[in-house]
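Re-run requested by the PI after the first attempt was lost when the workstation crashed. Everything re-entered from the original request form. Ligand of interest: iron/sulfur cluster.
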Amino acid sequence: MQQRKVYIETYGCQMNLADSEVVAGIMNSNDYGITTDAADADIIFVNTCSVRDNAEHRVHQRLQTLKKYKSNSPGVVIGVLGCMAERLRTELIEKGNIVDLVVGPDEYRRLPELVENAMSGEKGIAVRLSRVENYDDIVPLRTEGISAWISVMRGCDKFCTFCVVPFTRGRERSRTLKSVVEEVRRLNDSGFKEVTLLGQNVNSYRDGDSDFADLMKAVSEVDRSMRIRFTTSHPKDMSEKLIRTIAENENICKYIHLPIQSGSDRILKLMNRTYTRAEYLRLVEKIKCTIPAVSLSTDIIAGFPTETEEDHKQTLEVMKHVRYDGAFMFKYSPRENTKAWEMGDDISDGIKVQRLNEIIELQQKISLEQNQPLIGQTVEVLVERESAKSSDEWMGRTDANKVTVFPKGDATIGDLVKIKIHKVNSATLFGTLEKRKVATLQESIPLEYWNAGINRHSRHLKSYF
Ligand code: SAH
Ligand code: SF4
Ligand code: F3S
């Protein structure tokens, strides 16, 4: 019998991208092939996000267009995975006769069995959340050979009042330090140059007596030429020990994503963020003093219930004070069953848009100002892939996570190169190749790393959600 093929489309955060690689790994080890072409697939998985209403809206629309694959070939199985599966459950199957399977983030081990059943016409729902599942033993099928995401903890116990994640992902649980270090070692052996440790609250990681700082240190010692990143950290769990660990280990990138959400103490309290503006700013000072070259980014929500013009101004003030290199900025979106849902949604869309635009405009100005001093400087960049705009150029990232574009020259993917910057805008650095620093990517990378087909609808931090 011909091998059945799975197509996976991913929405949402890096945790979802990492999960899609876990799903691909599970399906692959059960004799399913992976394809990048939905038209060629026997099974279509859509790994979804619920964080804001528009994230869900996009998936509903996409399901409508995926319907045609089923009409063309009635045996095709369509599965909704991820956070929408957890949140909407039966509703997804009942609506529109498109979806055969609904599988939440902790039930991916059951996918082969559920797919088999779906092939014989039995629709399936598996949305149990687990206190222990962390896919520790699953080898993810990764889609690129340079930079890998590793989920080191799952779930979230913080319960910020606006957020669905604690409901869609369940309670916090961590992988063992040993298994993470082993995975990093394997990735290093197969030529990966960068790993990003992931968790919704990655710095609350714990394995017995080991905390996140211990994990970072252990991972950074695997190979000092490997870059180590992490995301997302909650300000409350940003310990001094972790800050020192970042400072003391050269290969841990000097880049911290530290969501603030709002600059107003009143709103922070309503959000249950568990820190005040002053505490957050003290933390930022501590970080900047300990890691002088640090680059910071954040998440901000505009138009949380009851937010006044004064609250909004305080957010702008904090942005001016911290001077983030980048930010992900969102309009508040009420989510059913969260605490904030009960607070109503009293800020009109017009005002939300106006505040969000002011926030975006200010951040773009600051990002540009932060990038301008780099003109004339030489930065170190890990070459990731061809630039989206030109096949003559590569794109890569600096240690501070700044996207850098430059003519290819004799550099190749996986090289760590020196780039002299001659132009910047708020989002990108442009430069020329000064020097190739390390040898080309090892040729030992297994072909499946390059060919595995997990279609990305969000890539890296730029389109985080
Ligand atoms: N765990 C991460 C964030 C996960 S969600 C953290 O706490 O830092 C990513 C971002 O989406 C959040 O930081 C927040 O800015 C935004 N977000 C979450 N729920 C939202 C909502 N209901 N409306 C608008 N933005 C939201
Ligand atoms: Fe959501 Fe807050 Fe948890 Fe982040 S820390 S995932 S915003 S509840
Ligand atoms: Fe979205 Fe779920 Fe991630 S809600 S942001 S895909 S954890």
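Saved to the shared folder this time. Confidence is low (pLDDT under 50) at residues 439-465.
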